[in-house]
Write a structure and sequence with these properties.
Radius of gyration: 22 Å
Mean pLDDT: 91
Structural class: mainly alpha
Shape: globular
Order of helices and strands: HHHEHHHHHHEHEEEHEEEEEHHHHHH
Oligomer: single chain
Strand order of the largest sheet: 1-5
């Protein structure tokens, strides 16, 4: 799929103008019904073109991880990184921050492509009607995903339900969050009727739709329940918790395509990714791709420089390239928050030493370690590809994972024998003992928030979890002493949009 995504369609010319901001010339490069969608192959290619935005550098393959993890307690940035990234780390985020700008620009780029598919594919001649419906369902899933990201990043945003193909379509005001949620839920509920549970690597299906629905309803429920500003319109937290539980239960019980992976390390094995049990939906990449976005350099942001060694060996025996960028550092206090027996914080998942073969005296192996022994920081093993080609990696960014939905279900339901058992599955895989019973509802949900931070670390979830539970101050400020002054619960709409769209202020 990934070769199709760009090799076929990038000949359509530059597409940055489709981002719905900074349009100062007539847009070009879009795929209209007049010059495309003439064959079933056109329709499939247009859908692949829509998926391709997910794995762009500025979205899931790099900048979304920075935007959602660096402001929290999980990751920090190397000292000589860009000022905008350090501003995220300090939660001093202005409306000209380039990383935040990408969190606005790239979802709208993908939304515009999805809108084109939804508009034009139903009229594609000589195409199976069932497949047409599936393509529209996938495009609606993607559009909903991007709006879910936008509303969690920015709050009130612009609803664009038509393809932007001329400059006069750009100017449009924001809609309240209530309308944005209604719009994206309508998309997901329609997608649910169109899609099957069949798995196609890197593509959305009915299970992914159920998973995303569960997260949307949990977002509304928990934000309402904890009093997050902007969610006053949610009429009832409990009804939304119920909906979250209902859709999460479908993922856990009404399908057999995805399930819990008992082997923690196997969850992140790039060689078995196409059939991975846990990963319901990912931003898919392939190290053999021709352009970044087909392959990814995400592992380079985490991997150690290791004195520029060609290869280093991890404590579990895995060999990886040794010339990483050491750009994203795991926070020391975050690592210390793991139980001593937790495999997710041990050398299996967060590494603080490597071995450089033959780099020591008289050709002996040399050990590099953190702190003070040649490594700048600890780094996670989730985003590694031992078989990288130069800097080109296969490293799918997880978007919806089975364990995430297990915790969605447990949080929505609250403490009982079933949800304790689910959490104990996760704890057992991590090498931890079963939970002691007797927690009240609030204590149980606070425990799950902490557990989500440890289990889903570095996966682009933490900022959203802390925001929806109104925990930014208590966790980041209270527990970790992190300063915060702007962009705490919502980022400001980027200045470039404000300057070019007079209906946004």
């Amino acid at each position: 799929m990934k070769s199709t995504i760009k090799n076929i369609l990038l000949t359509a010319a530059a597409v940055f103008a489709l981002s719905a901001c900074s349009l100062d010339v007539d847009p070009y490069g879009f795929l209209s019904g007049d010059n495309f969608y003439k064959t079933p192959s056109d329709a499939e290619s247009a859908l692949a073109y829509t998926y391709s935005v997910n794995s762009d550098i500025e979205y899931y393959s790099r900048h979304l991880i920075i935007a959602t993890e660096v402001p929290t307690e999980t990751l920090t940035i190397k000292p000589d990184a860009g000022a905008d990234q350090h501003a995220l780390d300090r939660l001093e985020i202005l409306n000209n921050n380039t990383i935040v700008e990408d969190m606005w620009r790239y979802p709208y780029l993908a939304i515009n492509r999805a809108n084109a598919v939804i508009l034009n594919v139903p009229n594609t001649p000589d195409m199976d009607e069932t497949r047409k419906s599936e393509i529209v369902g996938e495009a609606k899933f993607l559009r909903a995903l991007h709006y879910f990201n936008l509303v969690r990043f920015f709050g009130d945003v612009i609803i664009r339900d038509q393809q932007v193909s001329t400059i006069d379509q750009v100017n449009k005001g924001v809609s309240p969050m209530e309308d944005v949620y209604a719009f994206l839920l309508e998309d997901l509920l329609d997608a649910e009727t169109r899609l099957s549970t069949e798995r196609v690597y890197g593509r959305a299906n009915k299970v992914a739709t159920w998973a995303l629905l569960s997260k949307v309803y949990l977002q509304m429920a928990s934000a309402k329940n904890t009093g997050v500003e902007g969610y006053e319109w949610v009429s009832n937290a409990e009804s939304n918790y119920t909906q979250a539980a209902n859709y999460a239960k479908k993922v856990l019980q009404d399908q057999s395509t995805y399930t819990f992976e008992e082997d923690l390390l196997e969850t992140w094995n790039v060689d078995t990714r196409i059939a991975a049990k846990e990963h319901i939906f990912v931003a898919a990449t392939d190290r053999n791709g021709l352009l970044e976005g087909e392959y990814t350099k995400l592992p380079m942001l985490f991997m150690p420089w290791a004195d520029g060694a060609e290869q280093v060996v991890l404590p579990n025996g895995t060999t990886i390239p040794g010339g990483g960028w050491e750009h994203l550092w795991v926070e020391d206090d975050f690592v210390a928050n793991y139980d001593a027996n937790d495999r997710r914080g041990s050398l299996e998942m967060i590494v603080d030493k490597v071995t450089v073969p033959g780099a020591g005296d008289e050709g002996a192996d040399k050990e590099l370690f953190y702190p003070g022994g040649g490594l700048q920081a600890t780094f996670p093993t989730k985003f590694l590809d031992p078989n990288m080609i130069g800097q080109q990696a296969t490293c799918d960014t997880p978007i919806l994972r089975y364990t995430d939905i297990m915790m969605v279900y447990a949080e929505a339901i609250g403490p009982n024998a079933e949800t304790y058992a689910l959490m104990d599955q996760i704890r057992n895989r991590a090498g931890l003992s079963p939970l002691a019973g007797g927690m009240g509802l609030q204590e149980f949900r606070e425990y799950i928030l902490d557990e989500r931070g440890k289990e889903l670390a570095f996966e682009g979830q933490r900022l959203f979890d802390l925001r929806r539970t109104k925990s930014m101050e208590s966790v980041l400020g209270g527990q970790y002493g992190k300063p915060m002054s702007s962009g705490v619960y919502y980022f400001d709409i980027p200045l470039i949009e404000v300057d070019t769209n007079p209906e946004v202020n």
